[in-house]
Amino acid sequence: MPVDINTNIGAAMVNLQGLASQHYETLVKDKFVKELQQLNEENRKLTDFISLLTRNKEKGKVDFSDNPEKLKELKELVDYLYPIEPGIFGHELSYEWKDEASINAALGAANHAVQSRMQKSHDLAVQIQMHLEKANLIDKIAKDTLEDHKKLQEHIISHTTRGG
User: What tens digit of pLDDT does each residue of 77-132 get?
Assistant: First the structure.
């Protein structure tokens, strides 16, 4: 009978370890990695926007009404960024900046948004590492428990056969 108990406990530990690994893998892959990808995409768009404003800052204004290709590029960036960072635009959807002060305000807000996302990305990386460490710890505990049960099983069998 002790062999069956240890076998069942061992199987339960293997199942527990498998479930825990699946949980952390799913958590990391599905939640954190997707969130990290989203932050990276937002940062890429913000960086493109900053670059566009910076290239035109010397002119003292950003207005592409005479350049349909550049206007389209600007509109795509603004239309992507406005819903997630309306503060960059002074909470007013706009595709032009008429003076250096408004350009500087938009650049400052966009730079702040990039830094904020960089911090979030760092925090996510720390969370991913923490969850991977938990998964590794659960794996180690399960393996150690299985090894302990094997030793106990061998001990019981050796004492049962010696005594019998």
Answer: 999 999 999 999 999 998 989 998 999 999 999 999 999 999 999 998 888 888 77
Q: Which domain holds residue 143?
A: 2-163
Number of domains in the chain: 1
Q: pTM of the full predicted structure?
A: 0.69
DSSP codes joined into one string, the chain:
-HHHHHHHHHHHHHHHHHHHHHHHHHIIIIIIIHHHHHHHHHHHHHHHHHHHHHHHHTTT-B--TT-HHHHHHHHHHHHHHTTT-GGGGTTS--S-B-SHHHHHHHHHHHHHHHHHHHHHHHHHHHHHHHHHHHHHHHHHHHHHHHHHHHHHHHHHHHHHHHH-
